[in-house]
Amino acid sequence: MVPATYPVNASLEWRVFEIDPTGKVKWTDYIPVDTGSAGGERTYNDLGEMVIETLLDVTGLVAWVDYTPVDFVTAAAGKLWRVDSDGAIPVIDPA
């Protein structure tokens, strides 16, 4: 599932928290993201990437409301922006 809306901070950076994907379902329980891409920040074309804020602690926060659970992966070439079993969303963390 790719969310149509997603939690952001005041700078409009996607708020994410890395989880352990063991026993969880990709695209249902978490979203795979790839930080290895290069290209256009805040664009959604083939070379684009979403800007993220990676949270270190989610105490008191609600998954899918205050942040998105993610797993950082390395997607194969041509698999970015795909929502199949090999796909991932390209991201950049400016922090």
Write the layout of secondary structure elements.
Layout: E1 14-18, E2 31-34, E3 40-41, E4 48-54, E5 68-72, E6 89-92
Parallel strand pairs: 1-4, 1-5, 2-5, 2-6, 3-4, 4-6
Structure description:
This protein is mainly beta. The termini are far apart. Helices cover 0% and strands 28% of the residues.
Overall radius of gyration: 12 Å
| Coarse morphology | globular
- Structural class, from helix and strand content? mainly beta
Arithmetic mean of pLDDT: 87
Biggest β-sheet description: 5 strands, parallel, barrel
- Whole-Å distance between the termini? 26 Å
What helical percentage do the residues reach? under 10%
Question: How many separate helices?
Answer: 0
Q: Can you write the helix and strand succession as a string?
A: EEEEEE
Query: Reading side by side through the largest sheet, how are the strands ordered?
Result: 1-4-6-2-5
Low-confidence stretches: none
Query: What's the total number of strands?
Result: 6
Kindly estimate the percentage of residues that lie in beta strands according to DSSP. Answer: 25-35%
Characteristics of this structure?
95 residues; mainly beta; 6 strands; 0% helix; 28% strand; globular
